[in-house]
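Forwarding the complex inputs:
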Amino acid sequence: MAPPLPPLPTILHADLDAFYASVEQLLDPALRGRPIAVGGGVVLAASYEAKAHGVHGGMSGWRAKQLCPALVFVGGHFSEYQRLADQVMAILGDFTPFVQRISIDEAFLDVAGTVHLFGPPGAIAQQLRSRVRDEVGLPISVGAAATKHLAKIASQVAKPDGVVVVDPRHERAFLDPLPVGLVWGIGPVTQQRLADRGIRTIGQLAASPTDSLEQFLGRALGSKVGALAANRDHRKVQPNGRAGSVGAQSAFGRCEPSPELLRAVLGRLADRVASRLRAKQRAGRTVTVRVRFAGMKAVTRSRTGAQPLATTLTLTETAESLVRQALADHPDELQISLLAISVSKLVDQPVLQMELPVLPDDAVRAGSPSGSARWAVDHSIDAVRRRFGRAAVGYAGVELSPMGSVPDEFRELAEHEL
DNA sequence: TCTGGGGTCCTAGGACCC
DNA sequence: TCTGGGGTCCTAGGACCC
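Prediction (whole assembly, three chains):
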């Protein structure tokens, strides 16, 4: 039998460059060519002109200004980000039905079935970039390789505004000189641990004995690196699955965890999470809270119930009880700096768009409404908000809370390049 | 000048059942 | 009666990604 042909580099990873900042420069020509940062107190995204001065996401605003005095801060046009990114994804879909979007601004494509229509992967990458540039006006980088992992690394190397095709016959030559931090799953912690052992490049990593590496890196990462080095990364580009959890968090300076604070913050977070669950027609059985103390140490507490939940008031109460539990387990911690709520083990919970049911009597009389009354209250609030906007109505003490320093739109989009 | 927000995946230990 | 092994679910913690 003839030896199998080497796989073609038909997996593409397309990644918009400095996405939020590029959109701002697209919307306002006066910003083009200038160092800009999206955000204020903290930099959410920086243009390449700003990055040249060392500005990057996650940096405090004043530090960024120190590094780059000419830096211009701009507020975010969040609905524009979503709209333009969706346009880009639609263009990607013209080259193959196998598009897997992994965040607002990046996606994998498998073009194995369409090379006969559009030419080899490198040519497809160029056509795709031209169309995004011409029709949307944004720069996008593309990596092409035989596997997702490698394509992702290639697109990072291609930035800004470029293409890198990794020939499957020369993968090691491509990978070996690159820094280990480009490997998926190697973050700052692991990078430091590797550096302590003199390992900085992927080549050095691949050359070190696997068993001892696995011993100190953990089996998961060890096998991941092994698979990468041996080109055994066989994950397919697959249609997007549905989210496995829905959560929200809120950071505030350092505060004493008074009952009033807990009520206000958890009520607001539960309102966000539960209304998003209802909008997706989903509900979840497991509620997890996260409490971060003043020293950045964080703990979690979770509870799994028999019935899936998507009710604001029930979620608030469950979260409150879990947070109290976490606080009681750490009596030495006097201040907290963040609270988070997440709901997982999600199931479908279709909701008929029916007229509002008549409130049961017990809801009117009792201080604590019944399950069906809670359902009715939530859905009437959702309905009003659909018509008049989110701020139109809410739970007492929830909307009035001074805690929401970050506008809700800010929270809708997961940030990138941090 | 302490560091925002929304997710995923992995590990480990314990409970529980067969 | 004692013991072992496997499977599944739950909780908690941590690293990482965008």
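The first helix of chain A runs from residue 19 to 27.
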